[in-house]
Amino acid sequence: MTTHAELDFFSGHMDALPLYEGFRDRMLQIEPDTHLKVQKTQIGFYNRHLYACVSFMLNRRTDGFTLTLGLPYRLDSSMVAAASEPYPGRWTHHIRIDRGDRLDDELFSLLAEAADWADAKR
Question: What is the pTM of this model?
Fold first, then answer.
């Protein structure tokens, strides 16, 4: 169920809300120990640590959102719009989600890997 905080976050981007809800629901099925933290500029997905977030960083239009996830290596994929290594061994990847077919098994496999990696951190 979508919270008031999530609805507030999507104010001005309501066309992206159904896409986000589908993403969130599947992510919570895959990683049931995940908790969400809705902030002004992002919705964080946490287990012990942040492993992914939803924002509008790459999306100035209303039809999608940016998914950011962390991995211990640079992901070489056409789905990645931008990647950076903020410190050695930590790669941050930004992926534009603007269609339902972008929410595929490959993406959720990467998210599960990001969640496992975050959970293993001290």
Answer: 0.93
